[in-house]
């Protein structure tokens, strides 16, 4: 896939994903200037110091100057971003995003952008970490990771190819699926694990002997709860935006957990081992390790 080249790219939301994107684009040599748009001055200043962005502007100015705008804000802020962009959005400027949910973002884009929605190609880079903010950014964050593209019927083949090439320039592996498929899949493999990680931390913290439990916690607890250090604001928004799919997956998980509880209560070692073996073998054979 040929690398694209942009004179100016604007990144809206210069946290872990946004700042890492700026670093990756500069490292790949596909952009002359990166503009940063955000709420926190300290975070924006950090992004400039580390070279992730070149200048700080407001969203209106970013829209006027940029060939491409990338929305890296929490999904609940997407609608307001589209509203601020639309009056200044010229026909030559493309939009993409890094939102963890897609159906809600697409609905907001269609309602606000109208006919200009053809300029928006939704995306979701499957990359991140427990830390958040520009200070945690790294240029290779997307390297070898999937970026999901969820094209709209309104998008032209040329524009889809441009956004694919844009994300591929960061080292990402590009996959295309529908928004509905995306939200159902990631409710199970991303959103639910975060909910469970947060739940385990709260469960332990609510214990009378929470301090002792935390004091004795080892690698297993550390690994399971690592993602509960992620941005509470972002995961609040994801849970609300994709709540139907998440509730479906959570109900299924709770049914399995209840079955395990019954096996433990009955001291059914054979049943437990059979269930654990099924999970263990599948995990060992999974090529995503």
Question: Which characteristics define this entry?
Answer:
single chain, 289 residues, alpha/beta, Rossmann fold, 6-phosphogluconate dehydrogenase C-terminal fold, six-stranded parallel β-sheet, three-stranded mixed β-sheet, 52% helix
Could you describe the 3D structure shown?
The protein is α/β, with parallel strands linked by helices and 289 residues long. It folds into 2 domains: 6-177, NAD(P)-binding Rossmann-like Domain (Rossmann fold, 3-Layer(aba) Sandwich), CATH 3.40.50; 182-285, 6-phosphogluconate dehydrogenase C-terminal like domain (6-phosphogluconate dehydrogenase C-terminal fold). It has helices spanning 16-28, 41-49, 59-65, 78-85, 103-113, 157-168, 179-205, 210-216, 219-225, 232-241, 243-265, 269-285, and strands spanning 6-12, 31-37, 55-56, 68-71, 94-97, 120-121, 123-125, 146-149, 173-176. The strands form 2 sheets. The protein has a 6-stranded parallel β-sheet with strand order 3-2-1-4-5-6, with helices on both faces. Helix 6 (157-168) links the parallel strand 8 and strand 9 (173-176). The longest helix is centred in the middle third of the chain and has 27 residues, at 179-205. The two termini are 27 Å apart.
Concise summary:
It is built from 12 helices and 9 strands. The protein is α/β, with parallel strands linked by helices and 289 residues long. Helix 6 links the parallel strand 8 and strand 9.
Topology summary:
Blueprint: E1 6-12, H1 16-28, E2 31-37, H2 41-49, E3 55-56, H3 59-65, E4 68-71, H4 78-85, E5 94-97, H5 103-113, E6 120-121, E7 123-125, E8 146-149, H6 157-168, E9 173-176, H7 179-205, H8 210-216, H9 219-225, H10 232-241, H11 243-265, H12 269-285
Parallel strand pairs: 1-2, 1-4, 2-3, 4-5, 5-6, 8-9
Antiparallel strand pairs: 7-8
